[in-house]
Amino acid sequence: MTLLSIDWFYLVEKILLISGVLVLSLVVAMYSTWGERKVAAWIQDRLGPNRAGPMGLLQPLADGGKLFFKEEIIPTHSNRFLFILGPSIAMMVACMTSAVIPWGDTITVAGRTVSLQVADVNIGILFIFGVVSMGVYGIMIGGWASNNKYSLLASIRAASQIISYELPMGLALIALLMLTGTLSLKEIVEQQRHGVWNVCLQPLGFLIFLICAFAECNRTPFDLPEAENELNGGYHLEYSSMKLGFFLFAEYINMFISSALIATLYFGGYSFPWMDSLGWGENAIALLGFFIFFLKILFFIFVFMWVRWTIPRFRYDQLMRLGWRILIPLALANMLITGALVLLRQH
Amino acid sequence: MQTLTNRAKPVDRSPMTFMEKMYLPAIFTGMGITLKHLFRRKATVAFPEQKRQFSPVFRGLHVLNRDEEGRERCTACGLCAVACPAEAITMEAAERKPGEEHLYREEKYAARYEINMLRCIFCGFCEEACPKDAVYMSETFAPANYQRKGFIYGKQDLLIPNPKADK
C-alpha cells in the first residue's frame, strides 16, 4: 500500500520492530538485575531474592516501583541542565545500539518479506562504535555536573578507561573485518551461517574483544567508575530516584547489547549448525534462529555476571597497564598475522 | 624461624612464571570454583517457612510453672534474682490471703514477676537456683518487638496456662 509515495506497510513494520526491540532490551535489562542477584547469591551459597513473587520474579518490578516513588534530589551546587542530561544520554545511547543488530533472518508475512533487523546499514559496526563511544558522555557529564569530588574522579576514570579499551577493541575488530570483508552485521552473520563461526578463526581477537567489552560496560573487574567501596558509587553518587535508575538501567542494557554483539560477531548470530538442512519452513527457521540467538545472548549475560562474582577489581595502574601494554600490542600482532594470512590465501 | 603453630606457610616470593603472568589460567580456575558453588547446596535457612532444629539442651524463653492443681509454684524467694548474673529478674512478694489457696501453692507468692529479655543472657542459672521448680526455660526464643518495653515480660507472659481453668 503506497499513499503519498510512502510505503505505509514498511513504516508500520519498522515501527513495530523498533518497539519490539526496545521492549525486549528493557525487559531483558530489567530481568538482568534479577538474574544478577540470583547468580551472585548462588555463587555465594545463598538463595537470592525469593520473597516478591515465585522465585522472586517480581523483584525487578518492586525495585522499579521503589525508584519511581523516591524523592528526586538535585544538589544545589550542581549544574541543573547537565545533571539531567547525563542520565538521559546514558539511557538514550544504550537503547540506540540495538538498531543495527540482526535479530533474525527474514520472515514472510502475507506476501511481504520482513527482515528482523531495524536497519541493515552497510557500516553497522562503525555505527555501533560511534554510539558506544558516546555512552561515556552520559557518565562524564553526569559525574561533572554533580559537583562532587568522587563523581568527578569516577568520570575521569570512566573517560580514560573507555579511551584505553576502545583502541584494542577496534584493533581486534579490524582483524575480524579483514576476514569478513564487510562492515554490515547481517552479512557477517550470513557468512558464518555458510562457513564456521568467527571465534574459530579469531580466538585471540575474540578474547581481546570480550575483555574490552567488560571494560566498556564498566563491569567488574573494570568497574572503577563505580567502585562502591572507593568512590561511594562513583558517577551516580549524587543521583536519586529514576535518574539513578536510568544510569543503572543503561548499564544493564549495555550488557545486553554487548552480549548480542559478541554473539553476532563471533558466535554466528541467529545462525546455528545444520540450519539449512533442517527442511522446515522459512518462517519457522527464522523464529528458531531468533530463539537460538537469544539463548546465546543470555549465555553471555551469564558470563558477564559469572566473571563479576569471581574476579576482584583491578587497581587503576594495573588497568592502564593491561590496556596499553598488553592488549594493544596483542591486538596489533593479531591484526598483522590475520592480514598476512588473508594475503597468503589470496595468492 | 620457629612458628607458633604447624599451620604456618612461608610466602612464596619467587618471580611469576609466564603462565602465571598470563593470569588467564588462574582466572579460569577461579571461574571453575565459582561455577561449582553455583550448584552447591545453599546454606540459607528460609526462616519463617523453615526452622532450624534446636539442640535438646536449648535454653529459650522462661516460663513460670504451676503444680498439678494449677497453683503457681513461685513463692517469691528471690533466689533466681540473686543468681541472675545479668540482673534481669525483679519481683514483688505478697502474702496469700485466706480463700486464695487454690491460686498459690505457698503462703507467700510473687505479686509482680518481671524478666527483662533484653538483659537476659539465657544462662539458665535461674532455672538451677529455683528451689520450687517454678522457673523453666522453654524451647522458643523472644520474638522481635518494636519497643523496649515489649521485651519486659510480666507474669501474664510467663505463666503457663492453668490446666484447671482450661477444663
From TrEMBL, chain A:
<feature type="transmembrane region" description="Helical">
    <location>
        <begin position="165"/>
        <end position="183"/>
    </location>
</feature>
<feature type="transmembrane region" description="Helical">
    <location>
        <begin position="123"/>
        <end position="145"/>
    </location>
</feature>
<feature type="transmembrane region" description="Helical">
    <location>
        <begin position="326"/>
        <end position="344"/>
    </location>
</feature>
<protein>
    <recommendedName>
        <fullName>NADH-quinone oxidoreductase subunit H</fullName>
        <ecNumber>7.1.1.-</ecNumber>
    </recommendedName>
</protein>
<feature type="transmembrane region" description="Helical">
    <location>
        <begin position="252"/>
        <end position="272"/>
    </location>
</feature>
<keyword id="KW-0830">Ubiquinone</keyword>
<dbReference type="GO" id="GO:0005886">
    <property type="term" value="C:plasma membrane"/>
</dbReference>
<keyword id="KW-0812">Transmembrane</keyword>
<dbReference type="Pfam" id="PF00146">
    <property type="entry name" value="NADHdh"/>
</dbReference>
<feature type="transmembrane region" description="Helical">
    <location>
        <begin position="15"/>
        <end position="34"/>
    </location>
</feature>
<comment type="function">
    <text>NDH-1 shuttles electrons from NADH, via FMN and iron-sulfur (Fe-S) centers, to quinones in the respiratory chain. The immediate electron acceptor for the enzyme in this species is believed to be ubiquinone. Couples the redox reaction to proton translocation (for every two electrons transferred, four hydrogen ions are translocated across the cytoplasmic membrane), and thus conserves the redox energy in a proton gradient. This subunit may bind ubiquinone.</text>
</comment>
<keyword id="KW-1133">Transmembrane helix</keyword>
<keyword id="KW-0874">Quinone</keyword>
<keyword id="KW-1003">Cell membrane</keyword>
<dbReference type="GO" id="GO:0016655">
    <property type="term" value="F:oxidoreductase activity, acting on NAD(P)H, quinone or similar compound as acceptor"/>
</dbReference>
<dbReference type="GO" id="GO:0048038">
    <property type="term" value="F:quinone binding"/>
</dbReference>
<feature type="transmembrane region" description="Helical">
    <location>
        <begin position="81"/>
        <end position="103"/>
    </location>
</feature>
<dbReference type="InterPro" id="IPR018086">
    <property type="entry name" value="NADH_UbQ_OxRdtase_su1_CS"/>
</dbReference>
<feature type="transmembrane region" description="Helical">
    <location>
        <begin position="195"/>
        <end position="215"/>
    </location>
</feature>
<feature type="transmembrane region" description="Helical">
    <location>
        <begin position="284"/>
        <end position="306"/>
    </location>
</feature>
<dbReference type="InterPro" id="IPR001694">
    <property type="entry name" value="NADH_UbQ_OxRdtase_su1/FPO"/>
</dbReference>
<comment type="similarity">
    <text>Belongs to the complex I subunit 1 family.</text>
</comment>
From TrEMBL, chain B:
<feature type="binding site">
    <location>
        <position position="74"/>
    </location>
    <ligand>
        <name>[4Fe-4S] cluster 1</name>
    </ligand>
</feature>
<keyword id="KW-0874">Quinone</keyword>
<keyword id="KW-0520">NAD</keyword>
<keyword id="KW-0472">Membrane</keyword>
<keyword id="KW-0677">Repeat</keyword>
<dbReference type="InterPro" id="IPR017896">
    <property type="entry name" value="4Fe4S_Fe-S-bd"/>
</dbReference>
<dbReference type="GO" id="GO:0048038">
    <property type="term" value="F:quinone binding"/>
</dbReference>
<feature type="binding site">
    <location>
        <position position="84"/>
    </location>
    <ligand>
        <name>[4Fe-4S] cluster 2</name>
    </ligand>
</feature>
<dbReference type="InterPro" id="IPR017900">
    <property type="entry name" value="4Fe4S_Fe_S_CS"/>
</dbReference>
<keyword id="KW-0408">Iron</keyword>
<feature type="binding site">
    <location>
        <position position="77"/>
    </location>
    <ligand>
        <name>[4Fe-4S] cluster 1</name>
    </ligand>
</feature>
<feature type="binding site">
    <location>
        <position position="130"/>
    </location>
    <ligand>
        <name>[4Fe-4S] cluster 1</name>
    </ligand>
</feature>
<dbReference type="InterPro" id="IPR010226">
    <property type="entry name" value="NADH_quinone_OxRdtase_chainI"/>
</dbReference>
<dbReference type="GO" id="GO:0005506">
    <property type="term" value="F:iron ion binding"/>
</dbReference>
<comment type="similarity">
    <text>Belongs to the complex I 23 kDa subunit family.</text>
</comment>
<feature type="domain" description="4Fe-4S ferredoxin-type">
    <location>
        <begin position="65"/>
        <end position="94"/>
    </location>
</feature>
<feature type="domain" description="4Fe-4S ferredoxin-type">
    <location>
        <begin position="111"/>
        <end position="140"/>
    </location>
</feature>
<protein>
    <recommendedName>
        <fullName>NADH-quinone oxidoreductase subunit I</fullName>
        <ecNumber>7.1.1.-</ecNumber>
    </recommendedName>
</protein>
<comment type="subunit">
    <text>NDH-1 is composed of 14 different subunits. Subunits NuoA, H, J, K, L, M, N constitute the membrane sector of the complex.</text>
</comment>
<feature type="binding site">
    <location>
        <position position="123"/>
    </location>
    <ligand>
        <name>[4Fe-4S] cluster 2</name>
    </ligand>
</feature>
<dbReference type="GO" id="GO:0009060">
    <property type="term" value="P:aerobic respiration"/>
</dbReference>
<keyword id="KW-0479">Metal-binding</keyword>
